Amino acid sequence: MVHGLWSVATAVAAVTIAGTPAVAGAPVTYHRTVTLGTLGGASSAPQGLNDERAVVGWAETGDGRTHPFLWRDGRMTDLGTLDDGDGGWGIAAAVNRWGTVAGQSRGPAGTRAVRWQNGGITDLGTLGGDYSFATAINDSGTIAGASTTPDGSLHAFVWRRGTMTDLGVPGAREAFAEDIDNRGRIVGWRAAGDGTAAAYLWERGTVTFLPALGQGGRARAINERGDVAGAVLAGGSSRAARWRGTHLELLGNLPGGNAAGALAVNDDGVILGVGNVAPGSAEDHAFLWRHGTLVDLSTSGVPNSAVGLDDRLEIIGTVPNAAGDGPLAALFVPAG
Q: Which residue, 133, 141, 186, 297, has fewest beta-carbon neighbours within 10 Å?
């Protein structure tokens, strides 16, 4: 393991605050739902996808275990775990354009960040602790995630060419890495000892905290243009946000709602998120943000379980399984 000394930059921001935008008629119509199946069990759920329509996640096996899957060309494949016994389980979190997958699996030594490539599984190790997990992978095979350290704290890492490196996010009780682009830029967030969260961008050893409104933020995704999507806390509510450099833009709320968060952003700058439709309501709707407008996807059949978006505006999420007692991984395909 390599531990480096990192420089820290603090961003000073301009902020754009959008009001509650009108919902456009239907700029995107989702006409087809593709259910991805399971590995012999009842349930499954996606975690990530690439622009070649490969989807990864977890699925139940016939004996009730949770195994990682890769779905492409209409077929779900069990990626395997570090432990082939009853205690083995795994979750695939992200897939790059070449079909290399990152995630986590439990083996004899505990739960570890792993890479699946060419039919094999690689334990990526830890930062000296007993637990790690991977969340993102870029096209060169660089992986981002988080690991415990010898003192039990959780630190964000980058794994490259066999070496796991602590990102050195300062002031963190816990630090999470959420996404990585093909330039190796990593976004995520850290939780401080007082419970506040701060979104950050890591690039070439430098951690830059992204602007917020004094109440914290979380960065969830980055595209190849450097657009960062996530959420900030404003007035006690989560607000969907986009960062471009040091500029923070609040994306607004769905009509009637007062809370939202962004989950993914594609290379065209279209953002996927989830928001409520009434203050205090447990009912959330998935939305797309494009051309400055929030589009409620509930009328298009896309559920609030949406978690990922590709450059063709295909969305991954879940629908109820056949028994109605669990999720089933699904791909939502737009018309045209």
A: 141
